[in-house]
Every structure is written in C-alpha cells, then in structure tokens.
Specification:
globular, 13 helices, mainly alpha
Length: about 260
C-alpha cells in the first residue's frame, strides 16, 4: 500500500520542481528534468518525511500558478490551497508565504494582497488551535554552539546535507572514504555555483524574484530556530527551495 503512495508523492514533487524551474529557465527541458529528478530524492524524501515532500511539491505548483495568474485568484480556491499545504506540512505553507511576500514586495501588488488576506483565516485558526492545545516534548536537545566556526559549519551542513549524494542517512551507515571525498567535492562544487550565482546577480544589478528569494531564504536558514516545525532542522527544509532558486539564477537569461 505504501509503495504506490510514495510513487505519487515523488511524481507530485517532480512536477512541482520542474514547473518551478521552467518558470524561470526557458528552452532547457533536459537540464530541468535532470535537476528535478535528482532533487526529488532529497534527504527528507529518503528519510520518509513524505508529508513535507508532497507539501513541497504542492507548494511549488501553487507558487507558479499564483505568479502566472498575478495573484488574481478566487479567494475560496486560494483558501483551499492554503489548507492543503497546512495539512501537508506547516513549512510547506511557510515557503508559500515567503514566496508571496517577496513576490508582492517586488511587483508592488499590495492591493491584491488585501483581497487575499481573508483566505488565511482558516489556516490561522487551525494554527492557533494547534499552538495552544498541543505540546511536543520529545524533540532532541538543541545543539549548544558558542563559537563562530561551529555555527558556520552547522549552517553549511544544513544547506548541503539535504541534497549531497552520499549522506549516511541514505546508506544507513557512514559512507566509505571515497564516497566521503565525493561528497565534499560535491559541496565544493555547489559552493562555487552559489558564489557564481551571487556574482551573476550582483553584476546584472537586477533584483529579480529568484534573487530576492535566495537572499531571504539564506537569511532564514541562518536565523530559523532549531526544530521549528519538525524534528530535523527547519533550515534543511528551506535549503531545498534555496537551491532551486540558485539554479534559477544560474540559468535564467533575464540576469546577465
């Protein structure tokens, strides 16, 4: 019974990633398909966090739907979308809220925002009910890191651990030395791509949607409290969306 469910979730996540990248990257379908296929098998999916995985897929699809419609959607339909995300995973809803905030700030569509606010009432009520009636007491102890180097390592781990190819969670054991070296080389490559994307954005001097989202998400990865919204660090869930926007910057033609 579980296997067909996992397949459906993988398909939803794949189409969510593919649709999101296709919105920014034109005429590179093979590359988009390859990136989407690889990112489907991120650490959350492989560890069985299926509610977040399908929530992420739906969230990405809804983001592009709203962007193409320029936020001109029926408030009841939008409210239903928010409920689907909330019931999938809180952080999937949070990613959509971050996208909407950056999109509205960039496009100055403040009047449309007022028309959409009533759609948030059901999820706000559900969130308030959960906050005041539920308690979670079995979360791991938050790491106590006082030195700057340790905090930097933790941030880098949160960014890269989600998509590195040979994570020990994927293998249920610590990979061998060769695979560890391959993982570090992958992290170096990804670091170079992130810095290159930043340089490209700085050189183009165009505050596009994907650039603004990358900056906001990177800041959120740094400041998000430990275990906010789940057992794993919430910043690892933000990292998937952050990496997506990095690829959108690298291969988008509207940034030169």
């Amino acid at each position: 019974i579980l296997f067909p469910i996992v397949i459906v979730i993988a398909v939803v996540l794949y189409f969510g990633i593919h649709t999101y990248l296709s919105y920014f990257i034109k005429n590179q379908n093979i590359f988009i398909a390859a990136i989407a296929f690889y990112l489907v098998f991120n650490l959350h999916f492989l560890m069985g966090f299926l509610n977040f995985s399908i929530g992420l897929g739906f969230s990405l699809l809804i983001m592009i739907y709203l962007a193409k419609k320029e936020l001109k959607v029926n408030v009841w339909v939008f409210s239903g979308m928010l409920l689907i995300l909330y019931l999938s995973h809180f952080l999937a809803l949070l990613l959509l809220i971050i996208f909407l905030a950056v999109y509205i700030f960039q496009t100055k569509k403040y009047k449309v925002l007022w028309s959409l606010l009533p759609a948030f009432v059901p999820v706000v009520l559900l969130g308030a009910e959960y906050y005041f009636t539920k308690s979670i007491s079995d979360l791991p102890v938050s790491p106590n890191i006082d030195n700057l180097a340790g905090k930097i390592r933790l941030i880098l781990h949160n960014i890269f651990s989600v998509i590195i190819p040979f994570h020990h969670y994927k293998w249920l054991m610590e990979p061998g030395l060769v695979l560890q070296i391959a993982t570090y080389l992958f992290c170096v490559l990804l670091s170079v791509l992130i810095f290159f994307a930043g340089f490209k954005a700085w050189k183009g001097r165009k505050w596009t949607l994907q650039i603004c989202l990358s900056l906001v998400l990177f800041a959120a990865i740094i400041v998000t409290p430990y275990y906010f919204g789940g057992v794993m660090f919430p910043s690892t869930r933000l990292s998937v969306f952050f990496i997506l926007n990095i690829f959108a910057i690298l291969f988008s033609r509207d940034i030169s």
